[in-house]
Amino acid sequence: MRILVIEDEKKIASFIKRGLKEEGYVVDTASDGEEGHFVATTHEFDLIILDLMLPKLDGITLCKKLRDENIKTPVIMLTAKSGTQDKIKGLDIGADDYVTKPFDFQELLARTRTHLRKRESSSTQLQVADLTVNLLTHKVERAGLEIILTSKEFILLQYLIRNRDTVVTRTMISEHAWDINFDISSNVIDVYINYLRHKIDEQHPKKLIKTIRGRGYLLEG
Ligand code: CA
Protein backbone atom coordinates (compact mmCIF):
# COMPACT_ATOMS: atom_id res chain seq x y z
CA MET A 1 0.00 0.00 0.00
CA ARG A 2 1.47 3.29 -1.11
CA ILE A 3 0.53 6.60 0.47
CA LEU A 4 1.29 10.17 -0.61
CA VAL A 5 1.54 12.81 2.12
CA ILE A 6 1.19 16.40 0.85
CA GLU A 7 2.17 18.70 3.70
CA ASP A 8 4.43 21.75 3.75
CA GLU A 9 5.25 21.61 7.47
CA LYS A 10 8.36 19.46 7.45
CA LYS A 11 7.99 18.27 11.04
CA ILE A 12 4.43 17.05 10.54
CA ALA A 13 5.26 15.47 7.20
CA SER A 14 8.18 13.50 8.60
CA PHE A 15 6.18 12.54 11.70
CA ILE A 16 3.40 11.09 9.53
CA LYS A 17 5.86 9.45 7.18
CA ARG A 18 7.78 7.78 9.99
CA GLY A 19 4.62 6.52 11.67
CA LEU A 20 3.12 5.09 8.50
CA LYS A 21 6.40 3.47 7.48
CA GLU A 22 6.53 1.72 10.83
CA GLU A 23 3.11 0.28 9.99
CA GLY A 24 4.53 -1.16 6.78
CA TYR A 25 3.21 1.38 4.27
CA VAL A 26 5.27 2.85 1.47
CA VAL A 27 5.20 6.64 1.89
CA ASP A 28 6.13 9.52 -0.41
CA THR A 29 5.90 13.18 0.51
CA ALA A 30 5.38 16.42 -1.38
CA SER A 31 5.89 19.81 0.23
CA ASP A 32 3.63 22.11 -1.79
CA GLY A 33 0.46 21.87 -3.84
CA GLU A 34 2.13 21.89 -7.24
CA GLU A 35 4.61 19.19 -6.33
CA GLY A 36 1.74 17.24 -4.77
CA HIS A 37 -0.23 17.49 -7.99
CA PHE A 38 2.75 16.38 -10.04
CA VAL A 39 3.53 13.37 -7.85
CA ALA A 40 -0.15 12.36 -7.52
CA THR A 41 -0.64 12.41 -11.28
CA THR A 42 2.58 10.66 -12.25
CA HIS A 43 2.50 7.79 -9.75
CA GLU A 44 -0.17 5.50 -8.44
CA PHE A 45 -1.18 5.73 -4.80
CA ASP A 46 -3.68 3.92 -2.63
CA LEU A 47 -4.31 6.96 -0.44
CA ILE A 48 -3.44 10.67 -0.30
CA ILE A 49 -3.12 12.58 2.97
CA LEU A 50 -3.58 16.21 2.02
CA ASP A 51 -2.96 19.31 4.11
CA LEU A 52 -5.29 22.14 3.10
CA MET A 53 -3.02 25.11 3.79
CA LEU A 54 -0.28 24.65 1.20
CA PRO A 55 1.95 27.01 -0.75
CA LYS A 56 1.53 27.34 -4.54
CA LEU A 57 -1.74 25.44 -4.74
CA ASP A 58 -4.05 25.02 -1.74
CA GLY A 59 -5.41 21.62 -0.76
CA ILE A 60 -9.02 22.27 -1.78
CA THR A 61 -8.01 23.43 -5.27
CA LEU A 62 -5.61 20.52 -5.58
CA CYS A 63 -8.22 17.97 -4.53
CA LYS A 64 -10.76 19.42 -6.98
CA LYS A 65 -8.16 19.34 -9.74
CA LEU A 66 -7.38 15.67 -9.07
CA ARG A 67 -11.07 14.73 -9.13
CA ASP A 68 -11.55 16.73 -12.36
CA GLU A 69 -8.66 14.76 -13.82
CA ASN A 70 -10.46 11.58 -12.85
CA ILE A 71 -7.99 10.57 -10.15
CA LYS A 72 -10.12 8.71 -7.64
CA THR A 73 -7.50 7.91 -5.01
CA PRO A 74 -9.06 8.36 -1.54
CA VAL A 75 -8.09 11.68 0.06
CA ILE A 76 -7.92 12.39 3.80
CA MET A 77 -7.67 16.14 4.43
CA LEU A 78 -5.72 17.65 7.31
CA THR A 79 -7.67 20.70 8.41
CA ALA A 80 -7.33 23.42 11.01
CA LYS A 81 -9.68 23.22 13.96
CA SER A 82 -11.48 26.37 12.91
CA GLY A 83 -11.83 25.39 9.28
CA THR A 84 -15.40 24.06 9.26
CA GLN A 85 -16.08 25.69 5.90
CA ASP A 86 -12.98 24.01 4.48
CA LYS A 87 -14.15 20.61 5.68
CA ILE A 88 -17.54 21.01 4.03
CA LYS A 89 -15.99 22.37 0.85
CA GLY A 90 -13.42 19.57 0.82
CA LEU A 91 -15.96 16.81 1.24
CA ASP A 92 -18.15 18.48 -1.40
CA ILE A 93 -15.43 18.47 -4.02
CA GLY A 94 -14.56 14.84 -3.46
CA ALA A 95 -12.28 14.39 -0.46
CA ASP A 96 -13.22 11.28 1.51
CA ASP A 97 -12.49 12.25 5.07
CA TYR A 98 -10.72 14.76 7.29
CA VAL A 99 -8.62 14.81 10.42
CA THR A 100 -8.41 18.01 12.45
CA LYS A 101 -5.02 19.44 13.42
CA PRO A 102 -3.47 18.99 15.92
CA PHE A 103 -4.22 15.32 15.51
CA ASP A 104 -3.28 12.18 17.29
CA PHE A 105 -1.31 9.80 15.04
CA GLN A 106 -3.45 6.84 16.12
CA GLU A 107 -6.52 8.66 14.84
CA LEU A 108 -4.91 9.33 11.47
CA LEU A 109 -3.79 5.71 11.32
CA ALA A 110 -7.29 4.45 12.07
CA ARG A 111 -8.75 6.61 9.27
CA THR A 112 -5.98 5.48 6.95
CA ARG A 113 -6.77 1.84 7.61
CA THR A 114 -10.49 2.40 7.10
CA HIS A 115 -9.99 3.96 3.68
CA LEU A 116 -7.42 1.42 2.57
CA ARG A 117 -9.69 -1.40 3.68
CA LYS A 118 -12.54 0.04 1.64
CA ARG A 119 -10.27 -0.09 -1.35
CA GLU A 120 -9.51 -3.73 -0.83
CA SER A 121 -12.01 -6.42 -1.52
CA SER A 122 -14.20 -7.28 1.43
CA SER A 123 -11.95 -10.23 2.07
CA THR A 124 -9.06 -9.86 4.48
CA GLN A 125 -7.27 -12.84 3.04
CA LEU A 126 -5.39 -13.39 -0.20
CA GLN A 127 -4.82 -16.91 -1.38
CA VAL A 128 -2.73 -18.49 -4.13
CA ALA A 129 -2.49 -22.27 -4.28
CA ASP A 130 -1.62 -23.31 -0.71
CA LEU A 131 -0.25 -19.88 0.21
CA THR A 132 -2.43 -17.61 2.35
CA VAL A 133 -1.83 -14.00 3.34
CA ASN A 134 -3.89 -12.34 6.04
CA LEU A 135 -4.00 -8.61 5.34
CA LEU A 136 -5.02 -7.65 8.85
CA THR A 137 -2.66 -9.74 10.93
CA HIS A 138 0.05 -9.99 8.22
CA LYS A 139 0.24 -13.71 8.91
CA VAL A 140 1.56 -15.66 5.94
CA GLU A 141 1.26 -19.43 5.65
CA ARG A 142 2.16 -21.99 3.06
CA ALA A 143 0.70 -25.48 3.40
CA GLY A 144 -0.27 -24.55 6.94
CA LEU A 145 3.24 -23.54 7.99
CA GLU A 146 3.81 -19.98 9.08
CA ILE A 147 6.32 -17.91 7.13
CA ILE A 148 7.87 -14.85 8.76
CA LEU A 149 8.37 -11.98 6.34
CA THR A 150 9.88 -8.52 6.80
CA SER A 151 7.51 -5.63 6.05
CA LYS A 152 9.20 -5.04 2.67
CA GLU A 153 8.87 -8.69 1.71
CA PHE A 154 5.23 -8.59 2.78
CA ILE A 155 4.49 -5.57 0.58
CA LEU A 156 6.25 -7.23 -2.34
CA LEU A 157 4.39 -10.52 -1.90
CA GLN A 158 1.08 -8.72 -1.61
CA TYR A 159 1.78 -6.88 -4.86
CA LEU A 160 2.74 -10.09 -6.67
CA ILE A 161 -0.40 -11.86 -5.46
CA ARG A 162 -2.68 -9.01 -6.47
CA ASN A 163 -1.18 -9.21 -9.94
CA ARG A 164 -1.01 -12.98 -10.08
CA ASP A 165 -0.59 -14.63 -13.48
CA THR A 166 0.65 -11.31 -14.87
CA VAL A 167 4.28 -10.47 -15.55
CA VAL A 168 5.30 -7.57 -13.36
CA THR A 169 8.34 -5.58 -14.38
CA ARG A 170 10.92 -4.12 -12.03
CA THR A 171 9.50 -0.68 -12.83
CA MET A 172 6.03 -1.76 -11.77
CA ILE A 173 7.37 -3.23 -8.55
CA SER A 174 9.40 -0.09 -7.80
CA GLU A 175 6.31 2.07 -8.45
CA HIS A 176 4.19 0.13 -5.98
CA ALA A 177 6.44 -1.28 -3.36
CA TRP A 178 9.23 1.27 -3.09
CA ASP A 179 9.21 5.00 -2.59
CA ILE A 180 10.02 7.60 -5.16
CA ASN A 181 13.71 7.87 -4.36
CA PHE A 182 14.27 4.28 -5.31
CA ASP A 183 17.10 3.69 -7.76
CA ILE A 184 15.73 1.34 -10.40
CA SER A 185 19.23 0.61 -11.72
CA SER A 186 20.16 -1.14 -8.48
CA ASN A 187 19.51 -4.84 -8.00
CA VAL A 188 17.50 -4.36 -4.79
CA ILE A 189 14.31 -5.80 -6.27
CA ASP A 190 16.08 -8.96 -7.44
CA VAL A 191 17.61 -9.34 -4.01
CA TYR A 192 14.20 -9.06 -2.33
CA ILE A 193 12.61 -11.44 -4.82
CA ASN A 194 15.32 -13.95 -3.91
CA TYR A 195 14.62 -13.52 -0.19
CA LEU A 196 10.94 -14.04 -0.86
CA ARG A 197 11.52 -17.04 -3.09
CA HIS A 198 13.72 -18.59 -0.45
CA LYS A 199 10.99 -18.23 2.17
CA ILE A 200 7.96 -19.05 0.02
CA ASP A 201 9.16 -21.63 -2.47
CA GLU A 202 12.32 -23.35 -1.38
CA GLN A 203 10.72 -26.12 0.63
CA HIS A 204 7.90 -26.80 -1.80
CA PRO A 205 7.93 -28.70 -5.09
CA LYS A 206 5.49 -26.25 -6.71
CA LYS A 207 7.30 -22.95 -7.25
CA LEU A 208 5.01 -19.94 -7.23
CA ILE A 209 7.46 -17.17 -8.11
CA LYS A 210 8.92 -17.35 -11.60
CA THR A 211 11.52 -15.20 -13.34
CA ILE A 212 10.57 -14.18 -16.85
CA ARG A 213 13.91 -13.46 -18.43
CA GLY A 214 14.30 -9.91 -19.67
CA ARG A 215 10.83 -8.90 -18.48
CA GLY A 216 10.31 -9.37 -14.78
CA TYR A 217 8.55 -11.72 -12.42
CA LEU A 218 5.40 -13.74 -12.35
CA LEU A 219 3.52 -15.27 -9.46
CA GLU A 220 1.62 -18.22 -10.74
CA GLY A 221 -1.23 -19.88 -9.00
CA1 CA B 1 0.25 23.64 5.85
List the helices and strands and how they pair.
Elements lengths: L1 E5 L3 H13 L3 E5 L2 H10 L4 E5 L7 H10 L6 E6 L3 H9 L4 E5 L3 H15 L5 E4 L2 E4 L5 E3 L2 E3 L3 H12 L4 E2 L1 H8 L10 H13 L8 E4 L3 E4 L2
Parallel strand pairs: 1-2, 1-3, 3-4, 4-5
Antiparallel strand pairs: 6-7, 7-8, 8-9, 10-12, 11-12
Helix pairs in contact: 2-3, 6-8
Calcium ion (CA) binds next to loops.
Can you walk me through this structure?
The protein is α/β, with parallel strands linked by helices and 221 residues long. The protein has helices at 10-22, 33-42, 59-68, 84-92, 105-119, 151-162, 170-177, 188-200; strands at 2-6, 26-30, 47-51, 75-80, 97-101, 125-128, 131-134, 140-142, 145-147, 167-168, 209-212, 216-219. The protein has a five-stranded parallel sheet with strand order 2-1-3-4-5, sandwiched between helices. Strands 6-7-8-9 form a four-stranded antiparallel sheet, covered by helices on one side. A three-stranded antiparallel sheet has the order 10-12-11. The chain binds calcium ion.
